[in-house]
Amino acid sequence: MRIISGLHKGRKLLAPKKLPVRPTTDMAKEALFNILNNRYYFDEITVLDLFSGTGNIAYEFASRGTENILAVDDNFGCIKFIRQTSESLDMPIEAVRSDVFRFLENNTKQFTIIFADPPYDFDQNLFEQIPELVFKNNLLEESGLLIIEHSKHTDLSNINNFSFTKSYGGNAFSFFE
């Protein structure tokens, strides 16, 4: 995985092979950040990265100047890797080991951007629970955005607060406002 832009532009990070992850491709990540770059000043936002895996998305936000990033994953190895990497690169990422659904149910802090990259083989009802919990618990700031990464074969357009989907290769991002 590679950091696309910002302070650590071009830096390659190698995650341990044993982690149960599927990092967002560089092409899809670059396209996503082009969309976000037109909406936000990265140094003025707060970010919640759900199902963080390797921390790929959190590192990109940090490299671009975001100072308040919370990464959540239930895998100990993933959280350990994120903590080690963010510390070695002096990035302001707090990594928390938690079940994402439990975290969303209990968290009270609001975020500008909530990015979720759940397993692509999730049942439709699990995908639907993510925006349901985010909006029920008022976790987005007024100008906030929830982004769910999923397979291009998954359709989330029938979920409340859906705005639009962008597809890149086999990946898709659904945006909720």
From TrEMBL:
GO terms for biological process: methylation. Keywords: Methyltransferase, Transferase. This is RsmD family RNA methyltransferase. The keyword Amino-acid biosynthesis does not apply. It comes from the Bacteria. It holds the Pfam family Cons_hypoth95. One of its GO terms (molecular function) is methyltransferase activity. The keyword Transcription regulation does not apply.
